[in-house]
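Human: Here is a favour to ask of a fellow structure person. Comparing notes only helps if you start from a blank page. I am asking you to supply a protein in sequence and structure-token form. Write it directly below this note and I will take it from there.

Assistant:
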Amino acid sequence: MRKKRVLSVLMVMVMAISMLVGCGKSAGGSEAGDKKESKKDVFKVAFLPTDMSLTFASWLASELQTAFEGYDDMELTVIDSKNQLETQLSSMETCVSQGYDYIILLPIEPAAEDDIVQGYVEDGTPVMMINLDDFGVEEASSVIANPYDLGTVVATHAMTLLEEDANVVVLLGPSGNTDSIERRKAYEDIMFQKYPNVTILDEQLGDWEKSKGMDLMESWIQVHGDKIDAVVSMNDAMAIGAYEAAKDAGLADKMMFFGVDGLADAAVSIEDDELTATALQDAKVMAEEGARVCHEVLTGKNEKGFEKVQIPVTLITKENVEEFITRYKENGMLTE
């Protein structure tokens, strides 16, 4: 079996943003106004991801930086929220007080942040929700892959592979997370209601983390053994963790593993007959659309001051995975 190494997007991002330490003051000035005086033609944009240690967040940050390089009048700063809501809220406040022109937010808890975002928008700072949005702020821009659609394409494919009386375990994202909720709802509507004899042996929060997917799968194997036919995961990382636990137990070949995100490591896993399928939410397209919307708002081309965008989703299986392997090699996310 051909081996590949997935480049650490996080490490790429650490190198790429080593000089971007946050919304700090500019040299020789105490406020953002001083920055704008020295470089009036450049709009300052902040991207606040959930947690740069998460693969998708770091991939999206990298793609946003690439997309912003295509605009000579916008400058992007990436500020890690380290999966702490208080940190993300504080960073937003700091960026607003220092006069950043636009904030791109990958929210940790959209419902908890909506009122604050609404206030900033009303006070004149445009905000975009990217990758995750509960649509709680009408005049905030949004660029997402519809989470229900992501769940739908994988669930539809899973229905063609699983027996009508299959036993499955389910890995969920963080409690209250819109993406996890909507993907799980798609599975409910598309598969579990139509296959009422499918048994959900257990479902637990894995918080998007590979290590938690592995730990939960180890526990499930102890309880259910080889009765598990499939792992239904709301993201790729948890699915890969579950696969590795099943492989260690000698049971992986008897199970199917379904994820969501379409990350490079998931593509490799599908090619190597480990994961069964995933759905791509394309960080490259998301970043390009995000940069476009941001630029149009800042330059006044978008007179409304916001735009809602949903990008297409794509099912990745063994049949088409080579297309994505090639793509990830070309963009440097995979190497031999």
User: Anything to note?
Assistant: The longest strand covers residues 199-205. Residues 1-5, 7-39 have pLDDT under 50 and may be disordered. The radius of gyration is 21 Å. The first helix runs from residue 9 to 16.
